[in-house]
């Protein structure tokens, strides 16, 4: 049921019409009878990993002939015997693999590579099994997404992609397995090379730049080479919108150095890694006329706060492409500022554990995007979730749950938590993502990402999700734009050290704002939380007034440096929207310059 991954088309090619048609036709086929496709996907997973220790634990000594079993009976048996689990439940098994146990624990084929999650959600990185299947599905979903993008935004063959992509350092576990972020594994894989060779659309930067590990030096070289090839650039992309915003923010400060390098055909002395310097010097040559033209554009852009930077510097770029949902939604506003009228296209929906859905309508604004589930990538279940309307009960319980349902039985308008069974050895694994079914493509559901379940602000009987926080911060920060200021980034914390506990929201702001305005912002946020538990707790003073902390410029870059110093890659970095990480809180409190307490609720 898998499409031929070897014809991968990672970023769209106006001349690849035949291949585009083939993979779109394939997806239409597998999305037409998803109940059957999903059962066959589960059958393949169970056949592939038949007899592994983890499945034996639940199936016992039953000698099951998965291939001959009735599909419905097999599905029912699997979901009745194998329990729902979190990463914590599987961690002992994965740790044994990391420590060198080569017996068939989770998969029959030996796992030689482990992916690291970003660690920004729960404050620590997790090991996730990574196999060749992981790279193949990455190539496959990129090819499918590109086929849909090329219908709306066709690109020239033999063009270039300005990709702000970053590898982190890989390391060996105690058992000798290679470990690193999923993006690092992919950028080093055969599939990444195939993507470029097949599409004839090449990234501006060579492998030596991508794999450097120092994100500041890598960003500088991405920008330098992107401008060197400025007429050839067809699109600009990165894994997360944050990385693109970070890159253009750096450009505001470094454009003069980059222009000097283009003029002289040289590389700044700040680029210290020898292999990267040589790789870039092998590509560039002096272009004084281009350097002068870029200088003139940048001098003009400074007067408009860099509005429309992208189309002015890369006149042939068709769109900017990245993950812009969830915690990335905050950066869409700044990205629109840099892009002017250039379209923003939301990238695919996935996790370190598995790819989940593809964006079939690239013309939709990122806030409205949905993702059609890929029914051959994993076996999917969905736990129906119901919000608690009353403010009674435990504040740690965010939703009321019902029994999981298969992919073919989800309903439009219902919220669910995703459960995965993967080819890489995760069985009925709770992903922690909350999604809403917004419609269907044929029979496969189209999902709208809502929030992460574990990102909760909780003090008493209140329960506010990442999405609730996002809406409150958007409302509170609207006052900033009236005073020619902008919110650079934010995070939050439930302060429980002193009673009554209260919410603390940290803001980094660009521009000068009077204290009276910030007081209003603080009050507006406090009054904007609509969760019944929060409202009644504030009225009875069992939750104290919200606290707004303004941090120094550059504080959130220090948080980025902290995560990268602990093994994260910029390609995978997401600012945690709610944190209990002591080191993070220490950084935030150390660089807090002003504090305000809400006067809402009297």
From TrEMBL:
Domain called GH3 C-terminal: residue spans: 467-582
Q: Where is the GH3 middle domain?
A: 372-452
Q: Does the keyword DNA-binding apply?
A: no
An example molecular function term from Gene Ontology annotations: acid-amino acid ligase activity
A Pfam family the protein falls into: GH3
Say which family it is in. Answer: Belongs to the IAA-amido conjugating enzyme family.
What's the protein here called?
GH3 auxin-responsive promoter
From which organism does this entry originate?
Gossypium darwinii
